[in-house]
Structures are given as C-alpha cells and as structure tokens.
Amino acid sequence: MTPEGEYEPPEVGTVFRLRSRYAEDARLEIVRKMASALEDKGLITEDMKPVGYSERLRIRLDEYVRKIPARKHEGHWIDGGAQVAVFNPDTFFPFFFNHHGSQICRLCDGISTVGQIVASSAKERPTVIERALTEDIIRFLLLLEELDLIEFVK
Amino acid sequence: MIVPPNSVADRKPLGKFTLSTSPLGLSYIAAVLEANGFSVSILDLSFPTMEMERLREKIAQFEPDIVGVSTMTSNFPSAVLVAKKTKLWNPASIVVMGGIHATFLHREILKTVPEVDFVVRYEGEYTMSELVDALDKKGFVENVKGISYREKGQLVSTPFRSRIEDLDGLPYPAHHLLEPSFEEYISYYGKRNFPIMTTRGCPFGCIYCSTMAFHGRKYRTRSIPNVIGELRYLIERFKADNTSFADDNFTLQKDRVFSLCEEIRKENLSIEWGCSARVDQVSEELLKAMKSAGCTDIFFGIESTSQRVLDIVRKRFTVKQAKDAVKTAEKLGIRTHCSFVLGLPGESVRSLNNIVSFLEETKPSGRVLPNLLQILPGTELSENTEKFFRNRASISDADKTKAQLEILARFYQLNYGLTELFRIAPPDVVFE
Asked: What is the pTM of this model?
C-alpha cells in the first residue's frame, strides 16, 4: 500500500523503455482499429493480423499458484530495506522495484509457492479483492521471468 | 563450426543487448578450411533468434565429420552443452574445441568433458586446417602442432605452433559461410556492420587481460593495402556501410592509423566505423584524422578511476589521460563507450564511487559497462590471485551491485535526461 493507503500493484522499473513481449503496445490499438475498418470493407482478409500483434498469454491459475519462484543472479540483488534492486549481469540492465514488488522479490526464495506469496501479500492488503491481487502478482512474476530475474524450481 | 549460445538457458531475456557483429575468429578458420578444399559451414547459435534445435537440424542436414566449437570463459558452459548435444545427435562426429578459454584450460577440458576429442590451442587457422587434413587422410595427428587430445587415457599436447606472422597471407573471413546469413544479421540489427581485425596482439600486460598470453607481446599488423582491400571487398560484395575494427589495440601504432585513415579517405570508401583504443594513445590530431575517415565510435577500456588501482593492474595510463581522451573524442563528435571492472585489486567502495564523478565530468555518450571482475584463465591475475589480493580488503557483492546500479542510473540520467525510471509494461494475460 502507498503511504496514503492506496493499493499499488507490484511494479518494476528500469532506465530504458521496455515492455513485456506479450504486452499490448498502445499504438497497436490504432492499427487494430484501422485493420478492422479495412476488414469490414473486404480489403484485407481475416488472417492478416496487424504487424506487431502478439498473442496474449494464457495462464491456468490453479497450476500457476503451485509454482515455486526463485531469484536468479545471486549476489546481484541488493535490499535497501524499503526497496529491492537488482542488476542483471547478462542484459546489463538495472531494475528497481516498488514496495509491493520488493516484498514479492524477497519471497522468491525457492521455497514459497506463488499461492503462499499471494497469501502473504493479501494479509497486508485486506481490502483488495484476492483474485485481482493474484492476477497482478502473476503478471509481475511473468515479467520477472521474461527479464530473466527469476526461475521456477522444478 | 559452431559459435555457442551466450547462455545455457533457452530464452533470451527481455532487454538483452547483443553486439551487432558476426563471429570473426571462426570466419577466419572457415576461410582457411574452404581455401584448402573442405566443405565448411558456420552456425552462430549466439544470434538472438537462434535456437539450440537448429544445431540438431544442421547436424542432420550437413552430416559433419568434424564439429569445431569456439569458446570464451563467458560462454564455456554453453560450449560444453554444444559438444554434448553434438555427440548425442551425431556420435560419429569428432568434436574440436578452440578459443581463448580452451587454450588455457585444455587439460581440464579434456579431463572433464569426454565429448571433446581435440583442443586447438592458440590461433586456430592453420592448426585446424592441418588437423582436419590429418583426420581426413587418417594421418598422424601428432604431427599437427598446437593441439591437445586424449590417447590411451593420457593427455597429449603437441608442440606450440608459432603465431601467424604474415597476417596478409590469411584469406578474408568467410562471411558467406555464415548461418544466419549476413542479410539476417543486417535486418536484425539494422546496420550493415562487419567486423575486421587489422592487427593481433598487445604489448601491455594488464594483469586481468589474456590478450598478451594468447597473442603474444609482439604486435602483428596487416598491411594497409590488405586492409583497404578487405574494406572494398565488404563494400562491394555485402554493401557494407559500417565496420568494427576488432583489434585488441587498434591505435598502438599511430602512424599506421594515420595511414589507414588517409587511405580510407583517398579511396573514398564510404564506411563508418568503430574501434577500441587505449586512452593514452589517442591525441586530438589522431582523433580528428579518425573522425574524418568515418570513425563514429570508440571503446575505451578504462577499468578504474582510481590511479592506485590502475597502477596495481598495470594499465600504464593515468586517470587524467582517461578523462582527456573521453572529453576530446566527445568534443569531436565521436561516441565513446567506457568499460569499468569492479572489484580489481586495490579497489574500495570509495574509489568505486569515483566512477560516477568520472561520468559526470566526461559525459560519454555511447555505453557504459560496469563489469564485475572475472578472473580469466591465462591472465597474471589468475596465476597470482592471492598475491594481488593479499592485504587488500575485498568489496562485498552488495557494494559492487550498488555501484553498478548507481553508475548505470547516473549514466542514463546524464544521457537521456531521466529524472524517473520507466515502468516496464507487464504482459497481457488471459487467466483460465
């Protein structure tokens, strides 16, 4: 929660513009609308997707919450108390987490399941609907995996 | 010939920066093999869109008798993986490993990686060619200088092969044998960049660097006409408009660099280029000549902003020279890229903080690379680690990471005017 008591989803920031491979590019919305208009006029076929279109990830919630995330790049994380940061030695990117993101990173210990991480986060955020919180945390963990900051224990 | 992936993981991390350059070492070896009548192909598994599965397909398609794998310390685990997969998918093939890491650790590799049959030590062009010839003719490999292998459970190393003196005698690198093709490199990276090596070796024995051990103290050079010939060949055949001079020490012989720049201008070669240089070997006059011949980028291995550390690691230049070189190059419109090695002997948390001040003062506009010290085989530091670190407090991992984060954050702030971080957009997910 922010100091004002508002809910803050877990987030990660860096010094350069990055987005998940599966995130929607805002500019695509315009392209999609145009494509849709052209399709209505029969100028393009249904299978012609706009450039840059990415499939959305499909995640089975019940399976994902049983997974156990673990931080990668031991020795490259620092915990400043309020905030956690990490330097990925392979990509040369520094990453900084907000308070909620930092809490989750600390729990990516190779022992706790995603379900347990969600439960721990929910305790501090009793007013947030658990389903929404779970989805936010999963999105965040998927992003950490893409950034090569965590892996899942087999 | 295989360039191993950069990592053993099968995913390329988001934001991964990869150099827009093709493998030069293997292209040289492949060129010599091709010139001697062998059928060769190079597979670059470090290319961002390349998957390990392609190795399986390539092996099935090409049915190689011999598979050469290059390796550096950073990609050694994935080079071992390539060797293992090769033997799994084609047990009859002979696996040869080469490169800097394999040269210095050939005994350990042959002892611990049974899939590797031979190690080529030091420069591989003629050694590999002779080895392939010997294997092809079922001849005696013991006559091939510069290799190591197992025989009846024993390790055998043939005598050292002298380094190649006549670099002009080598054919131009066989870029045409490369997979992915050059067009794929170009379309991925967006520039028609080709690496060229015009010299080999470096006489400066910095304690953490393996160049002198690998290439020798003697600085070997190609003739200017030979280099110009390659540039012209790249422009005509591949429509190159950009090159990286991959020399370890491009500016050691100033007169030679002046001559090369003069020839590039005289020949009207329309090509932009980058190189690496020592900060004590670039005068304003030289930088001007380089700029007017198309130089756009210079990489400076500064490594530390503490004079004490520079002296301990025998960099043999001063912090002032480093500052002057970056400032002068930037003033002339040449992008400077600066690397630092965090954790060198004699470094302290306080001296690490000076790197931020250095960046604030010099304002390099290329990239800043705050690497953590990796003790490489073949270096003086690897042979005398204890001596160099004795009585010197080491810096904790947390402090090194903190320095890396601060250096990069400040660098991006200076160059991109960032006052806050960019939030990374998470994936769109359909939950089921």
From this structure: 0.85
